[in-house]
Amino acid sequence: MGKRGVFQGSFSIFKRLGKNKRGVAQTVLLEAMQAVAVILVLTGSLYYVNTKLAKVGFFKSLYARDTGMQATTMYAAPGNIYFLYYVKPVYEDDADRHRFTFQLYDNFVRVNATGAPRQSIYWYFSTEDSENITYSEGNVLGLLTFVKEGSQIEMGKKARITNANKITCPKIKTEDARWRQRKIILDAAHGEEESERNRIALSIAESSLFPSKAGNVKLTRKETGAEKSLDIDERAEIIGKEADEKSIVISISIGKGEKTGNYIKAYYNINSDDGTKQKSRKLGCTILNKILEYEDLEDNKDINGAAVMPSDSEEIEKILPRGKTGVVIELGNIDFPRESNFLYDTTDVVEAVYFAIEEYFGEE
Asked: Is 293 contained in some domain?
C-alpha cells in the first residue's frame, strides 16, 4: 500500500510536470508567433516607407539628370530652342504631398522634394562664352520652360498658379517717358468664324482703358460686327502702315481645344533682328507676368502655364513684320470650363495688358 501510494504520488507529479511542459511549449510557441508577426509588421512598415522614399528619390534623381542633360544639349545645339519639360507628381492622387525644388547654378542641378532628407545632384556642361543658368524655384509641379536664344538659356516655372510665377524677361532697355504718345497697335486676331473668340479679343482691343490713358492707340478692327471683320491681309496692311520704329504691336488671340490646356503664350517673329526679338520677348514676357499676377491676386487657379516663344508661322510674318516690335498674345483656351475660365471676365486681363505696357516702357 505504502509503495503503491508513493508510486502513484510520483506518477501524479510527473503527470502534472508533463502538463506544465506542454503549457510552457504552447506559451513559447505563442510568443514566437507574436514575435514573428511583429517582425512582419515592422518589415512591412519599413518596406512601405522605403518604397515611398525610394520613389521620391527616383523622381529627384530623374529630374536632376534630365534637367542637366537638357541644359547640356541646349548649350551644345545650334540655333534657338524652345522646350517644355513636365514635372509630374510622385503620386497622382496626392500631388501636393511632394513638390520639387530646382536649383541650377555653377554647372550643377540640385533637386529636392518636400519632406525628403537630401537633394539629388547632377552636372550640366556650358561653354566659356555661354551665360550660365541661375535658377532657383521651389514648389514646382507641372511644366518647366527651357528657352535658348544665342548663348543664353532661361528656365521658367509653368506649374498651376500658387503664387505669382515670373518668367525671366530679357535685360534690354525699353524705357520711354513719352510712351503715351507712341503708337500702340492692338489687333483682334480672330474673325467672324470664331465669334466667341473674336468677342473676347475685341473686348480687350476696344477697352476704353487704352484710349483714355494712351491717346495714340490704333485698332485693326474698328467695330465688332461680323460684316466689319477684316481678314489677316487687311489687318497686316494696317499694321504695316501704322507701325514705326517706336511703336509696339499687340495681337490678341484665343486658343481653342480643351485638351491643349489653358496656357497663355506670347509669340514673336523669330526672323527679326536680335534687338527687335529681345524687345518683343520683353514685351510678351511683361504682359504674361502681369496677367499671372492679376489672376493670382484673384485666387484664380485655372491658368496651366505661360511661355514666351519664337515663331516663323505665316500669320506671325504678316502681323509682326520683321523689324517691328510686337507679340501675338494667346490668352488661354476658350473651351476651358466656363465656370472657372478667367477669359469670361476680361476686366483683369485688360488692366493687366495696359499696366504691362506701362511697365515695359517704364524704368528698370
From this structure: yes
Residue/partner pairs of 97-100 with CB below 8 Å, 24 or more apart: 98/56, 98/59, 99/138, 99/139, 99/140, 99/141, 100/59, 100/60, 100/63, 100/138, 100/139, 100/140, 100/141
Burial class (CB in 10 A: 0-12, 13-18, 19+), 351: middle
Residue 342 maps to a domain: yes
What is the percentage of the chain residues whose pLDDT exceeds 90? Answer: 11
Full DSSP string of 30-95:
HHHHHHHHHHHHHHHHHHHHHHHHHHHHHHHHHHHHHHHHHHHHHHHSSS-EEEEEEE--SSGGGG
| Predicted local confidence at residue 283, as pLDDT | 94
Residues 216 and 145 in one domain: no
Distance of alpha carbon 189 from alpha carbon 326, whole angstroms: 13
Give the pLDDT band (50/70/90) at residue 279.
Answer: very high
**pLDDT attached to residue 64:** 92
pLDDT per position as a tens digit, 54-74? 788 889 999 999 988 888 888
Nearest to 256 by CA among 136, 345, 358, 336: 336
Parent domain of 239: 179-361
**Same domain assignment for residues 78 and 146:** yes
The tally of domains found in the chain comes to 2
- Provide the CATH number for the domain around residue 332: 3.40.630.40
Question: Could you tell me which residue, 345 or 119, shows the higher pLDDT?
Answer: 119
Judge whether 229 lies within some domain. yes
Pull the grid cell for residue 346.
Answer: 476680361
pLDDT greater than 90 at residue 90: no
Q: What is the DSSP letter of 208?
A: T
Is 170 domain-assigned? no
